[in-house]
Every structure is written in structure tokens, then in C-alpha cells.
Amino acid sequence: MGLNFKEKFQNMNTKRIAIISIILFIVAISAVFGYEYFQMKQVVKPQAVELQADSVLVQDADEVLNTKPVKPSDYKIGIEYNEAIKAEKPVVVLFYADWCRYCIGFMPTFQTLSRIYKDKYNFSKVNIEDPKYEKVVKNADLTGFPTVYLIDPKYDNKVLLSNATFSDLKKIREELDRFVRIRSMLDKK
Question: pTM for this one?
């Protein structure tokens, strides 16, 4: 009866130790994948809360909550990149990948922005895996996805939006408003 923990552990059957190790490994893996699954399911809900908080297109919040995330290429937003770059208005360009869960989560915000700013900006999406955009993607200096650029062909100006703002609709709107304000000052000169 005087066995301490170390002696009990040494006396355990190695088969038991292997079984316990496998069970602990399976539990750990299940916890990690369960958490990732939960995060993917929750990725759309913050967008809807922002929409309601900003009182912009509240009907979109219901659409977002009641639909499963779809590929970014499934969203019908904006115009072709080559067409957008030739237009008079500045362009908000989203570089995305269909497999990117952050891109999927950002799409409702991008869609909302395209509706709010349709008179001030052209919106365009660039699928980084589409061969027709190979040259554009190569010149964009992308480091992650999604990536959003504000491009003003009239003044040869290109601004990269920080992806730290992507979760906050108000911050993105501040950046878009600032860009338009600067452009209007340049137009007055």
C-alpha cells in the first residue's frame, strides 16, 4: 500500500499508457477542430450586428444571418476590374480567394459598402486564382487575403486599406470618406 505515484506509474501496463495517450490525443484534436468549426459558423454574425448598429440596410442583417457563407465569387458585386479602372470614379478593389474563410466573412461587409457608396466608387472583385488577373495580382503586392485597395486612376493614386479595419464597418467607412474628401480637394485645384 505504500506505493507512491511514481511507482504506480512505472507499474502500469504500456498498453494502457498507449490507449490513454491515444484517447487524450483524440480529445485534443476534437477540441481544436470543434473550436474552428464554431468560429467558422460565427464568422457571419458580427457583420450583421455591425449592420444593425450602423442602421444601414438592416434588411441585409437578416439575409446574412439566414444564409450560409458562400464563396466570394458567388456574390454579384461591382464591375469587372478592367472596366472599373478605366472609369471616372475611384475603385474599391477586393483581392480574394474562394477558399479563404476571412474573405467569406468579409463579403457581407463588402456588399454593404458597395450599396452605400455606389455613387462615389466603383466596386470590383479580383479572384487571385483567376488566370485573367495574373498580371494584376502579381503587381498588387499581396501579403494576405482579403486585401482591399482604393484606386483612383484619375490621379494615379493607390491606397491599401489595413485589414485591421475589416471587422469594423465604421472604420472602413471613415477611410472611404477620407479618400473621397481628398479626391474632391484635388478636383477643386
Answer: 0.64
